[in-house]
Specification:
35% of the residues lie in helices and 17% in strands. By secondary structure, the chain is α/β, with parallel strands linked by helices. The protein folds into 2 domains: 189 residues, Aspartate Aminotransferase, domain 1, CATH 3.90.1150.10; 263 residues, 3-Layer(aba) Sandwich (Aspartate Aminotransferase, domain 2). α3 packs antiparallel against α11, α7 packs parallel to α8 and α12 runs parallel beside α15.
């Protein structure tokens, strides 16, 4: 089957997630190595977003591939009711890197399932029904995880595919403060709003947060925010769930983002980077106290592929590779270089409203007018399929051989942690050139809003 026929067959027979089906035109990808991948025509692309912020180790890591192959030959599958060598090995290894206090593990196959399990555990252990989330969050696509997502993708299923009981609070989003305030004069009022919500609701089992909001903008909170949230929830007996599906495994320059602020959640969920994206695996890690709540009580979670030995073996190898290659520390160092380069080019592009990030996890937010912060597009336009400026910029970068993830009005820059400085420069140079598409649609200088001279920099 030739390349065009292969892509056409996939397009005509498959559903595509998160988009209108008629607009899908997939590109065939045949192989990948390091921070690069190739299409079926042999053209090379720099993976500047780790696919969907999953390929932290890059592509083709030999140790992980060998671990998968050896485990498949030895024990390809076992019922989750059994203990297996990779299950024991990963359980031991996790204790060395997870925040202290979360030491009981449930292994599923995705971040969505990890969050689904976390929500069940929280509700059943506390006997309460509500979950506090945030307005720009994304926690997954199954019923409960979708219901606690503030993401625009939830809109078409509002009232149709929801588990009742979600309460939303504002995010810590300094560039577009939902309360109209300015840091530090605000005294982190967005955290105080969480306290207000919890005092009003009375029946909240847990608050779920992405320590750094992922798809919806790479929103890095101010230093006081997460410790304040932890204290607010602890004082009220509300569990704290840290969704580290994107931010875990060195992505933000720490093993987990909560480590940055010395916060210990009651439940931590993760996926993606736990195997480097090589095999599907999700993890729900809880405190010992939460585990004890189910010692003599039925826990209604489980999957056919729960604790799959091949996935667990991949995770054991991946964790060893993070250590061997020093990728957590490298992410911190190279993240500073990446942000400096992004902020440098932003000075010359009036379409860039904000550059923000932590480690090798950054966002470039595009605006029509810097003074008013007017975005080029709205979430509603994304849902109905109107052309988006961020997508046009991403398409131009792809034409230049650099793949980047775009979402409504921002680009997510998250290369594999093994990325070289030369590859960072290549990706940023492609962005620099592609931003001309957005610049051409910026308000003219004589527009009442005017233009400012430099990109804003949110506190981090």
């Amino acid at each position: 089957m030739d390349d065009d026929a292969s892509a056409r067959l996939v397009r005509e027979t498959n559903f595509a997630g998160w988009q209108r089906q008629g607009a899908w035109a997939p590109r065939s990808v045949s192989r990948a190595e390091g921070s690069r991948f190739w299409d079926d025509r042999g053209r090379e692309y720099l993976d500047f977003s780790s696919q969907i912020v999953a390929s932290n180790l890059g592509h083709g890591n030999r140790a992980v591939v060998d671990a998968i192959s050896e485990q498949a030959r030895t024990l390809a599958y076992a019922s989750p009711g059994f203990a297996t060598p990779p299950r024991a090995a990963l359980s031991a290894a996790l204790g060395e890197v997870l925040p202290r206090g979360v030491r009981r593990y449930f292994f599923s196959t995705s971040g969505t399932e990890a969050n689904e399990a976390a929500l069940k555990i929280a509700r059943l252990a506390t006997g309460r029904s509500k979950i506090l989330s945030r307005t720009r969050s994304y926690h997954g696509s199954t019923a409960a995880s979708f219901s606690v997502s503030g993401d625009l993708r939830r809109i078409p299923l509002h009232g149709v595919h929801e588990v009742p009981g979600t309460v939303f609070a504002p995010d810590c989003y300094c560039y577009r403060c939902p309360l109209g305030l300015t840091y530090p004069d605000c005294h982190v009022a967005c955290a105080d709003e969480v306290a207000t919500k919890l005092d009003e609701e009375r029946d909240v089992a847990a608050m779920i947060v992405e320590p750094v909001v992922g798809t919806n903008g790479v929103l890095v909170p101010v230093p006081e925010y997460l410790p304040k949230i932890r204290e607010i929830t602890r004082r009220r007996g509300v569990l704290l769930i840290a969704d580290e599906v994107m931010t875990g495994w060195g992505r933000v320059g720490e093993w987990f983002a909560v480590d940055r602020w010395h916060v210990i959640p009651d439940i931590l969920t993760t996926a993606k980077g736990i195997t480097g994206g090589y095999v599907p695996l999700g993890l729900t890690a809880t405190s010992v106290e939460l585990y004890e709540a189910f010692r003599d009580r039925f826990l209604p979670v489980g999957h056919t592929y729960e604790s799959h030995p091949v996935a667990l073996a991949a995770a054991v190898a991946a964790l060893a590779e993070y250590r061997r290659l020093g990728l957590v520390e490298k992410s911190r160092r190279d993240g500073e270089y990446l942000l400096a380069r992004l902020r440098g080019i932003a000075e010359h592009h009036p379409s860039v409203g904000d550059v923000r990030g932590l480690g090798l996890f950054a966002a470039v937010e595009l605006v029509r007018d810097r003074a008013t912060k007017e975005p080029f597009n709205s979430p509603e336009e994304k849902l109905v399929g109107r052309p988006l400026v961020a997508d046009a910029v991403a398409a131009e970068m792809m034409r230049r051989g650099v793949y980047v993830l775009s979402w409504v009005s921002h680009l997510v820059i998250a290369p594999p942690l093994i990325v070289t400085r030369e590859e960072i420069d290549r990706g940023v140079d492609a962005l620099d050139a592609a931003l001309g598409i957005a610049d051409a649609q910026v308000r003219s200088p004589d527009h009442p809003g005017g233009r400012s001279s430099a990109a804003s920099q949110s506190p981090s």
